[in-house]
Structures are given as C-alpha cells and as structure tokens.
Amino acid sequence: MIRVAAIQMAPVFLNKEETSEKLESYIREAQDKGAEFITWGETLVPGYPFWLSPSGGAHFNDSGQKTAYATYWREALQLDSSPTLERMKSLAGELQIMLMGGIAEKEGASLYCTLVTIGPNGKLLGRHRKIKPTYEERLVWADGDGAGLRTHSLKDIRVGGLNCWENWLPLARAALHLQGEILHVAVWPGNLRNTEDITRFIALEGRSWVISVSGLLRPTDFSHLTESEFPMKSVMESHSENWANGGSVIVDPTGKIVEGPLVDEEGVVYADVDPTIAIQERQNLDISGHYSRFDIFNRPLADRAME
C-alpha cells in the first residue's frame, strides 16, 4: 500500500520562488498525513499560460506578448542549475518521498511543459516534456520528446505520468502500460471538465490507479504583478469566473472514484493505493500482457498498410 496525495493549489503566478514555498508547505502537510507519493498540476511552477487566448496571444511580434513570454521564461526552471529545483530535490530526500509534478522548464530561450519526477533519495529520476503542446500552448512551449516516456518504481509499484491532453494519446498511454504501470498520474492546469471523464476511462482501460491533479487560478491571483512585466494583467483580473476551477480526483482500477473531485478550492486529495486491486482487475483484461497481442500490434503500421 502507498498513500498518495494530489495537491490542488493556485500558484503565486509567475513567481517561482513564492510558488515553490507555498507548494513546500502543502508537501510537508501531505507527508505529515502519511503520503509517500505527492503530485501537483501542470506547470504549477511558475503557472500555466492562461493569458494566451484572452489577450490575443497569436498576434505576431506583439510587444505585450513578448514581454509576458520573457517574464515567463525568467521564472521557468532550468533542470541542471535551478535553485528552486534543488530545494525540491532536498525536500524529497529529507522527507523520504517521491514527488512528481509540473514545471515550466527552460533550455536556451525555449520553454517546455515538463513533468519532473524526484525520488525519495533526492535525485531527479526523470523529466517528461509534453510531446505536443495543445493549440495556443504552441505559442510558448516547444515540442517535447520521447525520452521521458518512462515509469519509475516506488516500493515495487510502477508510476508514470503524462501532461494534460497527451493523456488522450493512445500510444503515449501504451508506452507506459507496457512498462507495467500501476499508478498513472495525469497533470492538468485545472477544470473539472478535463478530468471528470478521462480519469475513469484511463483507469478502466489500463486497470490502473489514476490520479488526475489540477491547478487552481482565480482573477485575484494576478494582483501582485505589474503591467510592465505582465501587460495583460487587467484582462486576466477582469474575468468573471475562475480561470481554472480544479477538479482533482483519484480513481481506482475498477473505475470507482475514491476521492474528489475537489472544485473551486485549494486542498489535498488523498488515497491509499493497493496494487493488488490492479492485478485482480487485469485477470480478465491486461492490455500490456495477455490481451496485448504483440504478434499483431508490434508490426510497423506502414507494413500493414501495404498488404
């Protein structure tokens, strides 16, 4: 059994230091309640780029968009030299927990939507860059790669994760299934409409435990920014509803919701993951084992098309 925790919180938008401090307080709270695996939403540090659609993010060579991008880049994390990430690694080692969560990563002048995994030994176990940013996300994030399509072991439970809409990609899910994934983490920027259907679907398909963990973002979460560093501040503050309402939820391998969804508030969602339930459910459907038919499906698609 592994106790897992999904942290749903709003970032201190475009401030990596204060966001990570806030995140640390939730991590310590979750560990105090017995959590051994803790996760949080897509690019929580330093925030998801919600400004793109309402502020005309596709305007070419727009000075305001370039300013916002530069601020976002400034607050993103560099994997090999970020003090913020180093503190996360030290925290995982201190508390003897596994962390998996979303950050905006920078390399050169480019940005990536990245899911990092840190082991109980305080080491960075892996990074998964979003394979294909969705729609306007392509205006700020570069394409990822397949290097991060890996599972990691925690007490003999294989854990894997994907970012937001790439959870809809059958081959991305299959890449993790084929590594014996028992616990799947789907990280989202927020909103119940994203998590309420697909979480149960992934659980039923893979006979896996699934955590969908979301962020929260309200119009008031931009008040600390200045127009000079974030020119679309007034646009984001004038919104009548929350930009992201959460929706974090945990589902077991039978498709049953065991905790959540948590909506329109910050908090932590917990569950005790029993891997035996996943094995029991795979007795009649194991898509990475007896139901996989590798003799058919591992042939290149191009070869089959020629028949």
Which percent band covers the strand fraction?
A: 25-35%
What's the number of structural domains? Answer: 1
Mean pLDDT across every amino acid position: 95
How many individual helices? 10
Helix-strand topology string: EHEHHEEEEEHEHHEEHEEEHHH
* CATH third-level topology: Nitrilase/N-carbamoyl-D-aminoacid amidohydrolase
Q: Spans with pLDDT under 50 lasting ≥5 residues?
A: none
Describe the largest sheet: 7 strands, mixed
| CATH H-level homologous superfamily name | Carbon-nitrogen hydrolase
- How many β strands by DSSP? 13
The level-1 CATH class: Alpha Beta
Radius of gyration from CA coordinates: 19 Å
Amino- and carboxy-terminal Cα gap? 48 Å
CATH architecture: 4-Layer Sandwich
Structural class: alpha/beta
The helicity comes to 25-40%
Query: Which outline best applies?
Result: globular
Features:
alpha/beta; Nitrilase/N-carbamoyl-D-aminoacid amidohydrolase; 26% strand; 307 residues; six-stranded mixed β-sheet
